[in-house]
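Entries read sequence, tokenised fold; example below:

***
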Amino acid sequence: MCGRYAASRRPEDLAGLFEVEKWEPEETLEPDWNVAPTKEVYAILERPLKDAADRRPVRQLRALKWGLVPSWAKSPEGAARMINARAETLHEKPSFRKAFLARRCILPADGYYEWVTGSDERDLEVAGKKKRPRKQPYFVTPADGSVMAMAGLYEFWRDRTLPDEHPLAWWVTCSVITTEAAAGPLGVAPAEGPQSLSDIHPRMPLMLTPDRWDAWLDPSRTEEEALRGLLEPPEGGLMRAYAVGTAVSNVRNNGPELLKELEGPEEGTLF
């Protein structure tokens, strides 16, 4: 599962990291420490430039809307439900299959947030008590401080109620690919709390290591089995996770203070 993440790097920095050839300054996004579904997010993708005589794929940095709308959808209303695509089944799903074969991207992040329900509150929930479980958020990020390159898919959708030249006639949307959370030890584990990503949540975004970036973005690669081989989770020990304040649970809160590391879970949210 990936329903919230942080993305604060400048487009110039991302362009250098991913060897981007083309990006538009007018598409610059503000740093966002609480990225939520339906927001615009940065994506790295390769495709020919619009109206260019040279039809070779060009690596681009684009601003896309998070929440994939299939090209055949009658309306974009279901976008908020299409924020994730499961690595194990996306090649079978009508909403994702064509994009998997032809429209793959990387969604760069500082890391992602995941929530854990405290054990005492889980006991109350199982016992049928009315107390609503309170969840402790964790921030999961590469242990070495590098960019988290989340595997993604993108798609085009045409709003046929608008003329083709209208700026909102075409939507470009995306989805984060998720996989099973690593059960092995974290690269840096907190003194108190989860010792592996699977302790926090059974799913996580699929992080692509740099050796897979070129193959994943290459649109000429369309063979299903070879592409599925790129969906293997990276080796364990690459990530760290730490508790952050519950302020991140409200999407209206935004700022670098959301990433402040707590010494342990907040009171009432013990893991």
